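Supplementary Note 3. Input sequence used for the single-chain structure prediction.
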Amino acid sequence: MQIAPNKVVSIDYTLTNAQGEVIDSSSQRGPMAYLQGHQNIIPGLESALEGKVVGDSLKVTVTPAEAYGERDDSLRQAVPRKMFEDADNVTVGMQFQTMSEQGGTQIVTVTGVDSEHVTIDANHPLAGETLTFDVTVVDVRDASEEEQAHGHAHGPEGHSH
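The predicted structure, written as discrete structure tokens, is reproduced below.
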């Protein structure tokens, strides 16, 4: 069965950055499942997997535009330390969930701390990065009606409710 829209796809993968450093891998937790055609994974990887079958292995290099986008400096801001309940324990690298201007939630990363301000960055941590995926297709199956309605894969490698 070929990978096509509304197929649940399970892949093993290793993700590296432009310097060849491993950023993520499914080797410790098992295959990742996603619903093809529903924007569950980055566009560059999803399009490269279209038409592949179980057993196919590929190496895909994805530009920032096909992944998490370029870095946007407007998503960085310095906020007063007093905005943090436990400001003395806020450190670079910490992540927090905040409300976006559109009313949804977003993850921000602390990129700087000084005596008066905490600098936060709402860019995805991999924004601006060229990424390389070494991927093996492990399974392809038809999505259930429920998975299609929810827009994601269910089950052990997918989303659970």
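The longest helix spans residues 43-49. The chain has a mean pLDDT of 93.
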